[in-house]
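Work Package 4 report. The design task specified in the project plan requires that, given a folded chain encoded as structure tokens, an amino acid be chosen for each position. We show below one input record used in the internal validation round.
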């Protein structure tokens, strides 16, 4: 019996070793890049729309493999094989702010556009065209905007290495995480967030942001205890009072820029040591 347990322990140990030895992906994947969404202060051209689809009497949304109809055809130069990206403007349906300046910052950044998927034209009529949904990021529906497909760069990840929890201040531009891709107020490794810093500050695809926060700030709108950085009722206190700028910042994670516009960046979180919230700070590494 002991021999069996020893053998099992060895197997588990080896399995753990194999898992820890796995390497991180070298590039952001296709769906990560093309399903990330974006925020822009420039209105997206919206003349071309999804207007219907197969089984329209019972279907209200469409997904990969379905056929949809767009309101452009031979009269507008559409040809079989043309590709389109489908997006739609969207905002948080609950309109719940997590921190004080969230709504104001989001308005300054622009409009959040969801990537719904991609289309390939399979049949062209005089004023309409039929397209196959070749990629589904989200549900697709009537009224969604169809844009001529444009390649997006797939940025290369840096060597992961050990994460520096005590990284010094970079001295480069600082901003905030304003919103996440699915409007959750918390995010972590593998999630996509939107930051209020873009090309106007020199940000480009492939740049890395470091995520951090300060202890003792009261910007969050959720109920919280004042002075929790150095004392909390029933759980001890420090001998003196400390303000948020008296204590080291907490470095929480980092992410890579997938998409960038004038006032915002779409950031894929490549690492997080704790939950990351809307209102946390970022700096260009």
């Amino acid at each position: 019996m002991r021999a069996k347990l020893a053998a099992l322990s060895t197997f588990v140990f080896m399995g753990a070793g194999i898992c820890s030895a796995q390497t991180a992906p070298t590039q952001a994947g296709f769906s990560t890049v093309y399903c990330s969404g974006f925020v822009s202060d420039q209105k997206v051209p919206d003349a071309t729309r999804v207007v219907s689809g197969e089984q329209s009497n019972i279907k209200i949304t469409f997904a990969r493999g379905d056929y949809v109809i767009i309101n452009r055809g031979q009269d507008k130069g559409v040809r079989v094989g043309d590709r389109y990206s489908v997006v739609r403007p969207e905002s948080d349906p609950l309109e719940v702010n997590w921190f004080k300046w969230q709504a104001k910052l989001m308005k300054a950044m622009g409009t959040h556009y969801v990537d719904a998927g991609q289309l390939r034209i399979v049949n062209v009529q005089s004023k309409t065209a039929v397209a196959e949904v070749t990629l589904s990021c989200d549900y697709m529906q009537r009224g969604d905007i169809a844009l001529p497909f444009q390649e997006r760069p797939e940025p290369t990840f840096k060597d992961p290495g050990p994460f520096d929890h005590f990284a010094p201040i970079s001295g480069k531009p600082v901003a905030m995480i304003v919103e996440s891709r699915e409007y959750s107020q918390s995010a972590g490794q593998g999630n996509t967030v939107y930051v209020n810093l873009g090309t106007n500050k020199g940000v480009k695809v492939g740049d890395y942001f470091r995520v951090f926060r300060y202890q003792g700030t009261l910007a969050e709108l959720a109920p919280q205890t004042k002075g929790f950085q150095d004392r909390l009722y029933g759980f001890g206190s420090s001998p003196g009072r400390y303000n948020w700028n008296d204590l080291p910042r907490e470095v929480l994670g980092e992410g890579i820029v997938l998409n960038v516009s004038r006032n915002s960046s779409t950031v894929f979180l490549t690492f997080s040591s704790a939950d990351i919230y809307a209102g946390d700070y970022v700096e260009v590494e």
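The chain has two domains: 34-148, 154-284. Validation will be extended to a larger panel in the next phase.
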